[in-house]
Amino acid sequence: MAISLRSLPDKTVERLSQYRRNLLVCLSKGKQHIFSHEIASIHNITPVQVRRDLMLIGYTGTLRKGYDVKELIELIGTILDSRDGLKVCVVGVGNLGRSLISYFNGRRSKLTIVAGFDTNPEKVDKVYAGVHCYHFDKLTEVIQREGVTIAIITVPAEQSPHVAEHLVIAGVKGILNYTPKSVNVPPQVYLEEYDMITSLEKVSYFVKKNSGLE
Question: How far apart, in whole angstroms, are the C-alpha atoms of residue 129 and residue 66?
Fold first, then answer.
């Protein structure tokens, strides 16, 4: 039996999302079964890691056929997705915010971006990829009216602590911070922070290491 999402390690949750995305591609190409070494090759990890992740959600394949692709996609969906779906907002409708809205729109039926927020009068009350942009002053009102539980922060770094504070007060339960400035949230709010510069420097380090550069 699959264990609850709450007890899964963060990295396993990340990989399950990645597995599903690529399994959907495999399914669209007519592939019905897949082995752990094939999944591992796609994600540049070991077959042992794949098997461990899938054992954590109570799924095992067969020696002859491997894993049933459609069945595995559906199981990962029951682990990752909320039954009734969750609503998301984006705070900061600049280039990054608009790109996220456009990219994400329609890609996951159980996660829907329903609102954007900004203070720029040239962006307020405009619609981007079907998502209405509200003035930041209406953040609490809209979040509570729409039942938004997840927020993505894409504002200038110095504004992120102020935005995070208002999001917590408004009642969001999860925040994805795309700015390089860390924010503080209470324990009941799940925080994921993505720093593009740190990620790029990590890539740079390994390029240098693997290429013998100094």
Answer: 40
**Is 207 exposed, middle or buried, given 0-12, 13-18 or 19+ CB atoms closer than 10 A?**
exposed
What proportion of the chain, given as a percentage, has pLDDT over 70?
96
Residue type (1 letter), 211: S
45: three-class secondary structure by DSSP: coil
- How is residue 152 written in tokens? 């993505």
pLDDT digits (tens, 9 = 90+) for 86-144: 999 999 999 999 999 999 877 777 899 999 999 999 999 999 999 999 999 999 999 99
CATH 1.10.10.10 residue spans of the chain: 5-80
Q: Which residues of the chain does CATH 3.40.50.720 include? A: 86-197
Which residues have C-beta within 8 Å of that of residue 168, sequence separation ≥ 6? 185, 186, 189
Q: What is the pLDDT of residues 129-184, one digit of tens each?
A: 999 999 999 999 999 999 999 999 999 999 999 999 999 999 999 999 999 899 99
Write the pLDDT tens digit of every residue in 67-77.
999 999 999 99
Yes or no: domain 5-80 corresponds to CATH 3.40.50.720: no
Domain 86-197: what homologous superfamily? NAD(P)-binding Rossmann-like Domain (3.40.50.720)
CA distance 189 to 175: 7
Exposed, middle or buried: residue 193 (CB in 10 Å: 0-12, 13-18, 19+)?
Answer: middle
Query: Cα separation of 150 and 16, whole Å?
Result: 19
